[in-house]
Amino acid sequence: MAIRVTLDRVLLDRRMSLTELGDRVGITLANLSILKTGKAKAIRFSTLEALCRELKCQPGDILVWDPDEAAETDDDEGEQAVAAE
Fold first, then answer.
1. How many domains does the chain have?
2. I need a surface site. Which of 1, 35, 79, 83 has the fewest CB within 10 A?
3. Domain range spanning residue 31?
4. What pLDDT digit, counting tens, does each position of 39-67 carry?
5. Under DSSP, is residue 70 helix (H, G, I), strand (E, B) or coil?
6. Domain containing 75 — which CATH number?
7. What is the DSSP letter of 41?
C-alpha cells in the first residue's frame, strides 16, 4: 500500500505511549496497534480527527503517501493482469 502510517514517529516526538493515546481518544490498544504497524486498510475520519486532536498534529503528520510503494503496487497489478490474459 502506498499510504504509510507514521504514528510511531509522532508518538515518539510527543513522548506519548500507545496506551496513553488509546486512553485519551477511546480507541483500544489492539486497534491502535493495527494502525501503528501499517496493517490497517482504512481509518475513519472521526478516528483521524481524535488522533490529531490529542497529538496536536495534522493528518499529514500521521499519514504519508510513498510514491515508491505506489509504483511497486502498479507494477504488481500490471504483472497480474498480463498473467491473467
1. 1
2. 83
3. 3-84
4. 999 999 999 999 999 999 999 999 999 88
5. helix
6. 1.10.260.40
7. S
